[in-house]
Amino acid sequence: MVHQFVTRRLEQFLVDKEINPEVVRSVLTERANWPCLATKSAHKMDAMSRGGELLPKVVEAYSRPTRIVRGKDVEADMEVDEASFETNEEKALWEAFLSVKNKIYPGIEVDDFFEASSQLLQPLEDFFNNVFVMVEEERIRKNRLALLKKIADLPKGVADLSVLPGF
Length: 167
Fold this sequence. Notes:
Elements: H1 2-16, H2 21-31, H3 35-50, H4 54-69, H5 88-101, H6 110-117, H7 121-130, H8 138-152
Helix pairs in contact: 1-2, 2-3, 4-8, 5-7, 5-8
């Protein structure tokens, strides 16, 4: 009850400071337990949303894997089997994921998160242009879905990108 009260007060405070309400909601969904970090993140994300191309590109990049795995039978702890990759695009996306994952940690600055995530832009585009996820062979399909689930989960603890425009 107290947590919800403080979160709502912080939300109103940030909106009163003319921070985009969608940005505020996005940040508070994941960082309401850390009001100082949430405030800093909202200010930085708002500035990024007003000028620059990085935020909308990263939001769009995360939207596709998130939408594909939503409603599918993919457990969060499902492991990706590198030996099951059939294409170079799968391998390249996996390598990019591992690189980005190692740079993301609880409390990461939101601009650092978006900068690190930018490494996924080209590999994701190449993957979706050349790889069909929902193939007949269950092992390959589940492996591809597991890879996309791991990518879709990267923003957890930073921001809920699904409430932002372009998602």
